[in-house]
Amino acid sequence: MNKWWTIVFLMGLLGQTFSKSLIVLNFKLNQKAIAATRCENRFKPKTCCAGTCYLGKQLNKDEDSRNTPMNGASGFKFEVALYSEKKVESHHLIIDEKPLHVSRYTDPISQQVIDAVFHPPQA
């Protein structure tokens, strides 16, 4: 079942990504028929554009459909926040009644405490 959903999602993604290429490919394969039936200047042989006017309209229509928001919602915004949470071990030690804060960072993969301090090279 998951395999079918993957194929459907992949086909939708590829269709959206290569929609302009698919429009141009369809135009090239059917250019004679488009020039004969859908060209604006098909009745004027000297000014006939061989269907490029139809291609331009289809590309503009595709561009307009890409620019319109999804589902007609004008304020719809979809954001994904990516972040990495760093695990911190905190201990409070009280020495001579003054709180001392000690933090130890742990490596998220190995879960080992990192005590090393980076010292930049000195000139």
Fraction in beta strands = 15-25%
Structural class determined from secondary elements: alpha+beta
Major sheet:
3 strands, antiparallel
Strand arrangement, major sheet:
1-2-3
Distance N to C terminus: 62 Å
Instruction: Give Rg in angstroms.
Output: 31 Å
Average pLDDT for all residues: 75
Dominant shape: elongated
> What is the H-and-E element order?
HHHHEEE
The low-pLDDT segments are: none
Helix share bin: 40-55%
Put simply, the count of helices is 4
The tally of beta strands, per DSSP, is: 3
How would you sum up this structure, described in words?
By secondary structure, the protein is an alpha+beta fold. It has helices spanning 2-17, 19-29, 31-37, 52-67; strands at 88-95, 98-106, 113-114. It has a 3-stranded antiparallel β-sheet, with no helix packed on it. The longest helix has 16 residues, at 2-17.
What keywords describe this structure?
4 helices; single chain; alpha+beta; 41% helix; 15% strand
